[in-house]
Specification:
Structural class: alpha/beta
Number of helices: 15
Number of domains: 2
CATH topology of the largest domain: Rossmann fold
Largest sheet: 6 strands, parallel
Oligomer: single chain
Order of helices and strands: HHHEHHEEHEHHHHHEHEHHH
Shape: globular
CATH superfamily of the largest domain: Nicotinate-nucleotide-dimethylbenzimidazole phosphoribosyltransferase (CobT), large domain
Radius of gyration: 20 Å
Distance between the termini: 59 Å
Strand content: 5-15%
Strand order of the largest sheet: 3-2-1-4-5-6
Helix content: 40-55%
């Protein structure tokens, strides 16, 4: 893989076009002719209009779908901010690859592929199904300095883009974001604190299940990381490289790549939404291709979603990560498209329509 320059990345981003509102309007008009009160299917109607605009097709075929799981470790784990040891990251990657994780079960039910990418795990990994694009063995400890270099952040975004391009070439037309990396809720909370303009206390959550004492320690580490690095909120790459993670950067690339290819990308939980904040700052057009799956138990998630202007489809108090919430929402998207295509219209059913 020839490494991109920042100029090459910006050139790729510049090709992202706004979705076609004309198709969204056609979808809304068709929906209003179906045998139901206007707008009564709520978010399902909103989603079908967005999908039409994104794809340029009234009823797109989204049967080929993939959840891309980016895996990377975090140097900030040296500060003791997680209830689980860093060794869990490579162990869970093998669990994904062997089909035993929650996201694998849900993906099978949703007829979705799972692609797992080692973008920065702090261990040697080998498996025939693993996509190995390791940039470095985990980030540096952001509590004492930048998590990575600018060049590494760009390279990680490029990895995400190229995985999407590969999958698109194989016929995939809808993507979901997933991740694995012990310590990544700390990095995500730091990003959200800066880009959503909220304090660390509001941005930080319990992640894998830490107690009150550890939560306060986590908040202190987030505050220290922001103070030490002074990330520039007007430069999303600066925020990413200083207080982000390699798997977060990879997900930024997934979102940028999906938008470039006019494919919907279903955003999972807090970590994915932190990546979405970066992607939206890099390209406001890219945000129009995102669909928020759920609002997680992480308290900063609602602020992150609001900063992008996303409304989650569901709220199930999830905090698994992995892409589980995003994959669950494939079912809702399938249902929405089926309703729009298979429901009778007032005219075809011989039912009197609404009188305005």
């Amino acid at each position: 893989m020839e490494k991109w320059t920042e100029q090459q990345l910006q050139q790729y981003i510049s090709y992202i076009q706004l979705p076609d509102e004309q198709f969204a309007q056609q979808a809304r008009e068709h929906s209003d002719q179906l045998t139901k009160p206007p707008g009564s299917l709520g978010k399902l109607e909103v989603i079908t209009a967005q999908l039409a605009a994104i794809t340029g097709k009234l009823w797109p075929d989204l049967s080929r779908r993939t959840v891309i799981i980016m895996a990377g470790d975090h140097g900030v784990c040296d500060e003791g901010i997680s209830a689980f040891p860093q060794s869990v990251t490579p162990q869970m990657v093998h669990n994904f690859l062997n089909g035993g994780a929650a996201v694998n079960v849900l993906a099978r039910g949703a007829h979705a592929d799972v692609v797992c990418v080692d973008i920065g795990v702090a261990a040697e990994l080998e498996h025939p199904q693993l996509r190995s694009h390791k940039i470095r063995y985990g980030t540096a400890n952001m509590a004492v300095g930048a998590a990575m270099s600018r060049e590494e952040a760009i390279q990680a975004i490029q990895v995400g883009i190229e995985v999407v391009e590969e999958q698109y070439g194989q016929g995939v037309r809808m993507f979901a974001t997933g991740e694995m990396g012990i310590g990544n809720t700390t990095a995500s909370a730091a990003i959200v604190s800066v880009l959503a303009n909220i304090d660390a206390t509001s941005a930080a959550g319990r992640g894998t299940g830490i107690n009150d004492t550890m939560l306060q320690h986590k908040i202190n580490i987030i505050e220290r990381s922001i103070a030490v690095n002074a990330p520039d909120e007007n430069d999303p790459l600066d925020v990413l490289l200083k207080i982000g993670g390699l798997e977060i950067a990879g997900l930024v690339g997934v979102m940028i790549g999906a938008a470039r290819n006019r494919c919907p990308v279903i955003i999972d939980g807090y970590i994915s939404t932190a990546a979405a904040l970066i992607a939206a700052k890099l390209s406001t057009n890219a945000a129009r291709y995102m669909i928020a799956s759920h609002q997680s138990q992480e308290q900063g998630h609602v602020h992150a979603l609001a900063s992008i202007g996303l409304q989650p489809m569901i709220q199930l108090d999830l905090r698994v990560g992995e892409g589980t919430g995003a994959v669950l929402c494939f079912h809702f998207i399938d249902a929405a498209l089926s309703l729009m295509q298979e429901m009778a219209t007032f005219a075809s059913a011989g039912i009197d329509g609404r009188e305005d």
